[in-house]
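Schema walk-through. Below, the input block comes first and the output block second. Nothing else is stored per chain. Lengths vary across the set, and this one has 342 residues.
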Amino acid sequence: MRDSSDSAGLKRAPAPRRTLAITGADAFLGRNLIGLLEDDDRIGRIVALDVKQPSTAGPKTRFYKVDLTQPSVDARLAEILAAEGVDTFLHMAFLASPTHASAWAHELESVGTMHVLNACKERPVRKFILWSHTVLYGASPSNPNFLVESQPLRGNPESRFLRDKIDAEEVVARFAQQMPGTLVTVLRLAPILGPTVHNFITRYLGRKVVPTLAGFDPLWQLLHEVDALAAFKRAINVDVPGTFNIVGDGVLPLSTIIRLAGRTRVSVPHPMAYPMTRALWAAQLSEAPPTFLDYLRWLCVADGERARTALKFVPSFTTREAVLDYAGAQSLRDANLLRSVG
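--- output ---
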């Protein structure tokens, strides 16, 4: 038990416990983070904001049904922030995978972020943390070997999945300038992989035969799901403003990732792949739209040094280890599927 006495034998008052609000509380990251924060003595109360209560909600968690696509939600959010005395706001209400419901996704991510920030202006918070993505840099033949945080976000403008998230980062950057009293931290996470996460990357690698583009074998960088959660816990517990790339150590050629995942690679000529993927996406038979093919052609790898030095975030898993952990769990799922079919 931690001793609260100082060297003179005087009792020090315990540090006040934090009240944290989380949007996207019932999605993978929010749900698992709440489970971890329930056991964190530094957190006194968790305010879960989503359309559904997370299954990990415990005695510390208070759930509010909040739909960020509703036009008057900013006033509702401001009321909740004031009533609960929220000092830290973690905005995670973003889709982990592309969706055909693009208009709804725009309302949730781009417009929804504006609602959240309006509430945080009306009832200011001490700290604001945003979940973002390294894929927003965009895959390009002109990219350097490692992209730093000052690089512009040049993700394909035809991708609604990328554009809405870039919009969200831009309005958060303006918010940081307008609200100097709020410490703003942006975490750009590499694509997440692991034994329990489900997103368009896991579905892509979950195919028995994984399509790639003939003549291209770009380096990929992944982040283990455990490290993704650890990065958010770190950002919650330390006061370091700014934008940080959160990445696993090391990179691997896409062909190696497919092999380690126990899958078979099939190469498709890229002039044929784009119209084919467009047709499959329209028929809802593809995990991602044709703009995803850019990442099968060109480099999009981020530098995590700033997170190491300023946030003191060091990943526990390399990219290779994240793939192997995913592959082990996927092998069990494959075996269970075969048994159920048999």
